[in-house]
# Entry
Amino acid sequence: MTEDFGFTLHRRGLHALAGRTVLQIVPTLDSGELDHTAIDVAGALAEAGARALVASAGGRLVSELQAKGGVWIPFPARSKNPLAMAVNVRRLRRLLLDERVDLAHARSRPAAWVAYGATRATKTPLVTSVQQIAPGLGLLRQRYNSVMARGDIVIAGSRFAAALVPTLYPWALDRVSLIRPGVELKGFAPNRMDPARVHALRQAWHIAPDERIVLLAARPSLWKGHKILIEATRLLLQAGVRDFKVVLIGDAKGKGQVREIDQAIAKAQVESIVRRVGACADMPAALLAAAVVVVPSLEPEAFGRIAIEAQAVGTPVVVSDLGAVPETVLAPPDVEPARRTGWRVPANDATLLAAAIEETLSLGASSRDALALRARKQVEERFSIERMARQTLDAYAALLDRGDPSA
# Structure
C-alpha cells in the first residue's frame, strides 16, 4: 500500500500528464461524492495540461465540470442491467480508441465492470476507486464488488479500506494506494458563512434560540445508528440534560426503515426532542448550526465525509470507533486529550454515546474554540482537495510511466 507516490510531475518544465488524455467514468454528474471528486480531479488535470474527459449520464454539475476545464461525454454509466453493460463495453472500447485515451478511472461498480472489459481489450491502464467495502457478504456480492480491486491501481480512501481490500481480494495486495478524499474547504469556512444561512435553518427546523442542536446527517437507515442516537437522547433526558434538540437530516427513501425509526422515537418518548427534517440543501450551514455532529454507524464505513466536514466548520464530532470514520478524528488514546478534535465511542453503545454528547455540550467557550481550531487545522492538512488531486495525478503519472498494464 502506498499513500504518496512522490512521482515527479514535471519533465523539462512540463507536467508529466501534459498532453495526456484521462477518462473518468461516473454514474452521474449530480450531487454525490463521486461526482464532486471526479470534477475536482478533472480540474486538476486541466490545469496540468491534460485532456480531462468524464463519461457520465450527466446531471446538474455538467456546467461546473466544463467551467473547470473538463469535457463531458454522454454515456449510460449508471446502468446495472447486464445486457446493457455488455453493450456499454463495446461503446466504451470505441470511445477509448476514438479519443485516444491514455488512462481510464472507474468510480463505481457498474462503470468498473464496463471499464474493465473495455480497457483489457484496448490495453488501456485502469484505475479503480473503492467506495464501500465490507467483509461477510455473500459470494455473489463479493464477486460483484471485486471489480473495484481489479484496477492496475486501486485507490482506497482510508487505511481501513486499504487494509481490507487485499484481505478480501489477495491479487490486489501490490495495487492498493491510500488517497483520502478531499473536502472543499472554502465552502466550509465558518468565517465566510453568512449567519443568515444558519438562522434560516434553525427557523425551518423550529429550533429556539437557546436550544442546542445534536445533528445526525445520513439517510434513514438502521445501520447508520439512528436508533442508538434515539436511545442516547432518552438517556440524556433521564440524566437531566435539557435545552437541546436532535435533528435527523436525510432523504427518506426507505419507508420501512423510516417507520422503524419513528417507532423508536415514539417508544423512547422523545417526540418533542427528535426531529426528522428530510434533505438539506445547505450542509455547511447545517453543520455550523449544530452544537455537536454525531456519526453513530453500526457497520464499518470506507470513509467519513460528514465527520470531516463538521470538523472543517469547527463543530465537535462524536463517531463510532468502527471502520474508517475514526481515522478522521483525533482522539485518545491515539493522542493526548489536549490534542483531540472529537470523540470516539464503541458502536452500538447508547450509554457511552450519551456520555460523549453530554461532554461536548458541556464544553466552555474557550475549550470549544480551541477544539475548533485544532479540528480545522487537521482537516486542512489531511483532507484538502489539493492534496487529494495531487496524489491522484501522481498515481496516474506513475501508472503511465510503467508502460502497458498487465492483462
The first strand starts at residue 10 and ends at 11. The chain has 14 helices and 15 strands. Residues 338 and 371 are 9 Å apart (CA to CA). The two ends are 21 Å apart (CA to CA).
